[in-house]
Amino acid sequence: MVKLDGKHIYLRALEPKDLDFLYQLENDTSIWEISGTLKPYSKKVLRLYLDNAHRDIFEVKQLRLCICTLDDQCVGLIDLFDFDPKNKRAGMGIVIAKAEDRNKGWGAEAIEILCNYAFTMLDLHQLYANILEENKPSIHLFEKLGFDQIGVKKEWIRTSKGFKNELMFQKINVNAS
């Protein structure tokens, strides 16, 4: 198994054993607002997704990895999406599943590992992240890791309580050729 190792966590590809974790996370209505999910996912649909998770980022334009502790507990997911090799950019998203697992540094380490992978292995010039304006912990996290706010998408995300602004953050690979 190929892993992207950190000091306290590692990133790995999705595996069939992740079905229950993925089922719980994708059906957690508290994160639907940030994921754009509109309906529950069945285990059958997620099993089909896992069966195709091995496909190459250049083919499917996305990469989803599990964030695992060193004792092999899957605590979250991190993604590259809208992969654009011509313009050398991709979006990045992250979620730590349980509130009690947040603020332990795992998210920051996962972002650093994936940024390094994206900039060195995929030769990307830039990464971006879209964050709800009210999500102060995520804003702080991405700013701490060198992402700059580059814009505001006004009333971008529709919720049950109305529309919310989404901020766009960007990190340029200063070592890119």
Brief descriptors of the model:
single chain; 177 residues; alpha+beta; Aminopeptidase; 8-stranded mixed beta sheet; 6 helices; 8 strands
Could you walk me through the main structural features you see in this protein, from its secondary elements to its overall organization?
There is one protein chain. By secondary structure, the protein is an alpha+beta fold. It has one domain (3-127): Gcn5-related N-acetyltransferase (GNAT) (Aminopeptidase, 3-Layer(aba) Sandwich). The chain is 28% helix and 36% strand. It has six helices and eight strands. It has helices at residues 19-26, 32-35, 43-51, 57-60, 106-120, 136-144; strands at residues 3-5, 9-13, 63-69, 74-84, 89-96, 126-132, 148-159, 162-172. It has an eight-stranded mixed β-sheet with strand order 1-2-3-4-5-6-8-7. A hairpin with a 4-residue loop joins strand 4 (74-84) and strand 5. Helix 1 crosses helix 3. The model has no long low-confidence stretch (mean pLDDT 90).
